[in-house]
Amino acid sequence: HVQRVLTYVQYVSLGIFALAIIVRIVVGVRIVVGAPGGATTNQSFDIEWFNPAGAFSDPGAVVHGMLLALFIYWGWDTCLAVNEETENPSTTPGRGAVISAFVLVAIYVSVALLVMMYATVGTEGIGLGNEANQSDVFLAMKDVVLGPWGWLIVVAVLASVLSSTQTTILPTARGTLSMGVHGALPPKFGEVHARNQTPGFSTQVMGAAAVVYYVAMSFLSENLLSDSISAISLFIAFYYALTGFACFWYFRGTFRESARNLWFRGILPLIGALLLTAAFFISAVQMLDPAYGDSQIFGIGGAFVSGVVLLALGVVLAVVCRFLPSTREYFTGKPTAAATAPTSA
Which of 130, 101, 102 minimizes the C-alpha distance to 115? Predict the structure, then answer.
C-alpha cells in the first residue's frame, strides 16, 4: 500500500512538472534566472539526438551512459522477486517486468527530451551545460517551471528515494527468505509476517544492514561512500550479464523449437550479456584512474577499489557456500528434504 501511494505521488508530481514544461514550450518562452528580461528561445527538437553514430564517437561516454542507465533503471525487475506473492504467478510477474521496462523508458526519454528542449544545453541559468546544475537539474528548474509549486518536485524526489529503497530491499529479503527455508541461513530468516504475509525478519535485517552501512560510511568518509555508490553500477552490470549468460545456457536446448525461443531465450539474452560484460570491464578500467570519483586508495580510484573488493568478497562467499555442508545443497539446486513452507511469526 505504501509503495502504491509513493508511485501515485511520483506520477502526479512528475506529470504536473512535464505539463508545465510543455505549456512553456508551446508558449515559446524559457525563463532564465538572472538573464536580462528573463526570456530566451527554447532548444528545438533534433532527431540527431537519437543518432547512434554520433553517440559512439566517444565510446567512453557511451559506456558511462550505459552504466548510468543501469543504475537508474535498476529495480524494474523487482516484481519478478515477489512472484510467489502475486496473483497468477506464472504470468503476471513476467508481464509486469516487461511493462515496467517500457513504461520506465517512456518516462525517462520523454522527460529528458522536455527538459533538454526547455532548459537547453547552455552554460548559463538553468542550462544543462551549467556545471552548477549538473548535480541536480530538477532542483535548479523547479522554481522556474512551477513557481510557488516547486516543492512538488522535492516531494517527487523524496517519494522516488523511498520507492527505490524498497525495491532494493524487496528482492534481497526474499532471497534470504528462501535461504532460510532451505537451510542455507538460520531458520529465523524463513519466517513470514503473520498478517502481511511478507518476509518479516529478512526485511528487517536487510533494512538494518543498509542503514548501518550508510551511517558507518558517512562517518568514515563521505567521499568513499560516494565512490562505493558509483561502484554499484559495476555490480548491476555483473549480475545482469551473469543472468543473460545463465538464460542462454539454461534454455539452450529449446532454441530449435521456435523462432521466438531462439530470439528471446538465446540471441537477445546473449547480446545483452556480452554488452554488459564489455561495459563492466571498460568501466572498471576507467575507475582505475585516481581522478575518477571523489577518493583514491593507494593511487587507485576509490570506486574501483570499492567495486573490486566487494566483488572479490562475493566470489569468496560464493565458493565457501558452494562447498560448505550446510549451504552446499541450496547453492547446487538441491534443497534439503526437510525444507517446508515458510513459518509465520
Answer: 130
